[in-house]
């Protein structure tokens, strides 16, 4: 017989959750319910312990102009994004400026979608790949690149204010190219894209999270 989660001490609960995560038993709604059962003020740290994230390395000294240093998104924003897009197993999710990979891994674990991170800082990419390999997540990958310099593809893109200025303009041009081929959703945290003519903003239940649907002529909405 299983104990109720509330009846378990914190250490036992974490050990069981890790074992279930590694065996593939903890996915989708079961993971979502478990995360929501953790008190909100502990949730971010709890998820990092579950995924095995340690302190990030310091940001590299020579970040290019317009690039924002590493800071992880809140788990609540990620839960809201997955539910409100809604992210599906047949989506191709891309986090532009993925840091240690918290968003990429959770997006995949919660939805089953293929998920990719694009990150400028090589030490962060190495850490993210190592965690992914340990958790055996073959549908999750990380590219070491400047998002403004590579061809992009995917159906759902996530940006936690990773860059600004000309770098953001260049990435938006690349995203518009994707949207000419297929409908896309762009999810932003603490970043407004109000003046972009090919995007339509959607209301969300979270002030810090905004969703935009592409509306390039001839390409239907998702
Ligand atoms: C605010 S953090 C967001 C991290 C992650 N997306 C999350 O929400 O947890 C921004 C990240 O974007 C990365 N970054 C900044 N400019 C970039 C660029 N041009 N291409 C790829 N990554 C970039 C930074 O190194 C940093 O890790």
TrEMBL record:
Domain DOT1 residues, every copy: 78-133
Keyword list, A-Z: Methyltransferase, S-adenosyl-L-methionine, Transferase
Residues passing through the membrane, by range: none
Lineage, top ranks: Bacteria, Pseudomonadati, Myxococcota, Myxococcia, Myxococcales
Protein name: DOT1 domain-containing protein
CDD domains recorded: AdoMet_MTases (cd02440)
SUPFAM superfamilies: S-adenosyl-L-methionine-dependent methyltransferases (SSF53335)
InterPro entries xref list: DOT1_dom, FAM173A/B, SAM-dependent_MTases_sf
Coiled coil: none
